[in-house]
């Protein structure tokens, strides 16, 4: 499967380098000739291409042409020339609309039957929501092929769209990788990278910039995974875990433990591979499981960090390792042009490949409520569309909480017991919270709540709340949610 390549950089928007991708589009792709404006004027000699890209520019074309018409002398020849200039736009509009409708018709459709893990309604195609009186309506502009809005603590799925549709996950699969491998290797362990560690990476992979024969701590490598979505960091950590093949088996085994039945792992980094898929429901399960781990929470909430660079020798013969700044590619955490950081956001992971499109799973808190939202492959090609749709679903979820009946639930891991995620079913929420509180006291299992330490991960704050199963999200997030 073809990847979206950028030289010496990334195949995906994880690295935030879309400017190169845009500049590399050839002239025949529909861009106007050099010297012409984005909305082609009659005197440019540009012809509107048969692409939906320019559908929105037809009004601008007409307006510009009308301006030219008003400036011309009112003579027959001049009017004929101006009328001829208008003809391409007038004839292009219905043709382009037809092309757009045809492209929409060719969009893949979800299977008629999908998994019913978490509830029968989650196995249905289309949008599933049950609004009580006074509940807000879902956002109008939602183009994701699949999405889920869930209460992270109760497990209630408030709304979903093709929740179990098996789709390419891109780098959001790194959540499963981290949830599987993170507890296995001490953070302070240091490793000198060998050429074999980096073997097998897909062409155009997103990279944090790991160098062969250079020594890194495991902590550094996880920063590379969570902040820069570095496939090089994933492969080095996989080598420390016993190799890529073993890591893939471990991830698949862990997915089964989490009841993520829509997921088939082929590559540990989410790079497009034949037969690799997941679903919005499963990605939400991975995020929920990962967020139980203090290190996972801390890494995915880190906005910026320093990463080891080259080791250089001074004139006196002393060696010094330089560092360079890296920023989290989660744009709801760090913001972007035209996109503010989302108040209360605390992670989790974004991804993009040309095959998977944009994918994202986020967790956010407002007051005492914590929500998880996953969006996969919005069909709207707008910049940052996956983040905009996620933010819209977060806004809806916080407003609809308590006013929307659950349409399903996030199931607990195998062996954890139904009381850990009742979703309004089973033994009830009071029993569930009591059971989790007892579990927290008596074991160090996957559902145990723990505080986050401050330090090198950025100003996350040391304070944490331990209220039943409520996650101790970074204090920075709590402050941000009140701004």
Provide a brief overview of the structure.
The protein has helices at 18-23, 58-71, 76-105, 174-181, 218-228, 231-240, 244-257, 280-290, 294-300, 331-334, 385-400, 429-442, 475-482, and strands at 127-131, 144-151, 156-161, 190-192, 215-217, 304-313, 319-327, 345-353, 357-366, 369-378, 404-405, 408-409.
Note down, in words, how this protein is organized:
This protein is α+β, with helices and mostly antiparallel strands and 483 residues long. The chain is 32% helix and 16% strand. It contains 13 helices and twelve strands. It has helices at residues 18-23, 58-71, 76-105, 174-181, 218-228, 231-240, 244-257, 280-290, 294-300, 331-334, 385-400, 429-442, 475-482, and strands at residues 127-131, 144-151, 156-161, 190-192, 215-217, 304-313, 319-327, 345-353, 357-366, 369-378, 404-405, 408-409. The strands form three sheets. Strands 1, 2, 3, 8, 9, 10, 11 and 12 form an eight-stranded antiparallel sheet that branches. Strands 4-5 form a two-stranded antiparallel sheet. α4 crosses α7 and α4 (174-181) packs parallel to α8. The model is unreliable at 1-10, 16-83 and 418-483 (pLDDT under 50).
């Amino acid at each position: 499967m073809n990847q979206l390549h950028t030289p010496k950089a990334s195949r995906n928007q994880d690295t935030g380098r879309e400017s190169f991708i845009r500049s590399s589009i050839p002239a025949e792709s529909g861009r106007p000739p050099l010297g012409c404006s984005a909305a082609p004027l009659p005197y440019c000699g540009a012809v509107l291409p048969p692409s939906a890209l320019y559908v929105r520019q037809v009004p601008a074309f007409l307006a510009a042409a009308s301006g030219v018409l008003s400036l011309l002398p009112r003579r027959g020849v001049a009017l004929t020339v101006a009328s001829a200039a208008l003809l391409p736009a007038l004839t292009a509009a219905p043709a382009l609309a037809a092309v757009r409708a045809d492209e929409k018709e060719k969009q893949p459709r979800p299977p008629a039957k999908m998994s019913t893990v978490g509830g029968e309604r989650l196995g249905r195609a289309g949008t599933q929501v049950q609004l009580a009186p006074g509940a807000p309506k879902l956002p109008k502009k939602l183009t994701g092929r699949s999405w889920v809005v869930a209460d992270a603590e109760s497990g209630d799925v408030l709304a979903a769209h093709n929740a179990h549709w098996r789709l390419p996950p891109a780098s959001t699969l790194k959540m499963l990788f981290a949830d599987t491998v993170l507890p296995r290797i001490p953070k302070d362990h240091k490793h000198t990278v060998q050429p074999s560690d980096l073997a097998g990476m897909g062409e155009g992979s997103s990279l944090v910039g790991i160098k062969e024969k250079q020594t890194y701590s495991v902590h550094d490598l996880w920063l590379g995974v969570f902040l820069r979505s570095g496939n090089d960091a994933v492969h080095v950590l996989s080598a420390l875990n016993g190799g890529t093949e073993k890591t893939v088996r471990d991830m698949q085994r862990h997915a089964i433990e989490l009841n993520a039945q829509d997921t088939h792992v082929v590559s540990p980094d989410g790079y497009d591979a034949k037969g690799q898929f997941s679903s919005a429901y499963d990605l939400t399960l991975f995020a929920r499981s990962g967020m139980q781990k203090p290190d996972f929470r801390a890494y995915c909430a880190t906005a910026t960090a320093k990463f080891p660079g080259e080791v250089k020798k001074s004139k006196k013969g002393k060696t010094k390792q330089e560092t360079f700044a890296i920023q989290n590619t989660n744009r709801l955490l760090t913001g972007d042009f035209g996109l503010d950081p989302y108040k209360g956001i605390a992670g989790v992971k974004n991804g993009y490949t040309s095959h998977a499109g944009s994918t994202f799973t986020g967790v956010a808190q407002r007051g005492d409520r914590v929500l998880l939202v996953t969006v996969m492959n919005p069909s709207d090609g707008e910049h940052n569309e996956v983040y905009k749709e996620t933010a819209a679903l977060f806004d809806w979820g916080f407003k609809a909480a308590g006013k929307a009946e659950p349409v399903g639930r996030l199931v607990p891991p195998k062996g954890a017991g139904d009381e850990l995620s009742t979703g309004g079913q089973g033994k009830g929420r009071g029993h569930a919270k009591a059971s989790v509180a007892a579990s927290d006291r008596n074991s160090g299992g996957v559902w145990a709540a723990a505080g986050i330490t401050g330090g090198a991960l950025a100003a996350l704050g040391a304070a944490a709340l331990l209220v039943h199963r409520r996650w101790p999200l970074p204090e920075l997030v709590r402050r941000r949610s009140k701004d």
